[in-house]
Please model this.
Amino acid sequence: MIERADVVVVLAKEPKPGLVKTRLQSRFSADEAAQLAAAAVRDTQRAVRASRIPRRILCWDGDPSEFADGFEVLPQRTGTLNDRLAGAFDDIGRGDSARVLLIGMDTPQISSALLDADWEHQDAVLGLSEDGGFWGVGLRTPDTARVFAGIEMSTARTGAAQLARLLSLGRSVKLLPPLRDIDRPDDAAYVADRFPGLEFAERHAALTGASRPDVIFDHLYAGDYVRCDAHDERVLPLEAAALVRSRGRGRPAGRIPLPWSGP
Model:
């Protein structure tokens, strides 16, 4: 029998300019970073709605009115991220045997299949992120204060430390597939390129001007890969690849998919 989560909690904040995704502002304006954050929240919620998890909670900081549809809404506690993680688990009012999966708003590429993963009778699940943190944590039993207390967050060792803490408390853990958090501009480009069906990818393309011929040429000349527009499968010819290779940073010979507005 598959043991999937009984409850999913999305820990997120209102996407206000200057208050969210500040590390993206080396490439994007505060307003643009907020637009990307809003798209990431909606993509995450879309995956949650498509999952089989019966109870869906938005643990929210700010005005939830734009994002509340289909979710119970609880306010986030104040304090450190450790406090907010523990509080999210403690505030939902669950039975001691309920499996609760908590995720954030930084992985819009998350899928309903991943959310529906079988816990395989383990006490906890942990999804590590490529930057050394974790994108999700699931717990079957309470006592969350000890689970998160003292864990140094937002470091390259946070995920390892969280796993070690769970094991030190005697909890069996299933590791979920790793995902890439969207923290910096290169993370945003990576996710947008590989998951073109996301609202996040569409907003990223609009903000980076991926369909403008001058911007396309600039990216090619710099040796950057340019993502194909989600709605146009036409490509530029082999000469574009030759141009990239001439800069010494190119990819193997072939046709490079590009947005194209010509005849």
The two ends are 55 Å apart (CA to CA).
